[in-house]
Amino acid sequence: MFRLAGAAFLAIIFITGLSSFELPVPAPADKKAKVNWLTPEEAYALNQKEPRKILVDLYTDWCGWCKVMDRETYAKAEIAEYINKNYYPVKFNAEQRQSIKLGNRSYHFMAQGKGGIHSWAMVLSNNKPSFPTTVFIDESFRVIQPVPGYIKPGEFYQIVTYIGGDHYKKEPYDGYLKGTFGQLY
Fold this sequence. Notes:
Elements: H1 2-20, H2 40-49, E1 53-59, H3 64-74, H4 77-86, E2 87-93, E3 100-102, E4 105-107, E5 109-112, E6 115-118, H5 119-124, E7 133-137, E8 143-148, H6 153-164, H7 173-184
Parallel strand pairs: 1-2
Antiparallel strand pairs: 1-7, 3-4, 5-6, 7-8
């Protein structure tokens, strides 16, 4: 009898304890802005309807600095928002094997040994591929400037606004940093 009463007592305490125990509810995840990456063909088609500059993130799967740039630079909300508003952003794997067609031009994978590189990556990098490379293309689909290497968020924001705001047409980059950038941002 005492065993039954003891078991019932423990059960009541256990149930009471459970009913007063609250599981922590995770806070809603921050809805961080992220870059809305497109394929080259999607960006080209959108550019035909509504011209805008194109930003290409030229990367490879094995590139460690490409992953760091994704995590540290492109993940910054102000950078993602600026890119989405002022560019058609394209993420392009320089070693992808699928051909692409942009207007009347076709680009293909060029096999070299066990690997290879895509011909569009060669065009974008002026035949000097390195990864990551950020390539800026104008509204007429002409390369403005490839910028090779990892770029820290602060410096990247300066570059992306310099080109996105057409300041590169009016003043040298150093002048932009010393004057215009500080006035605008």
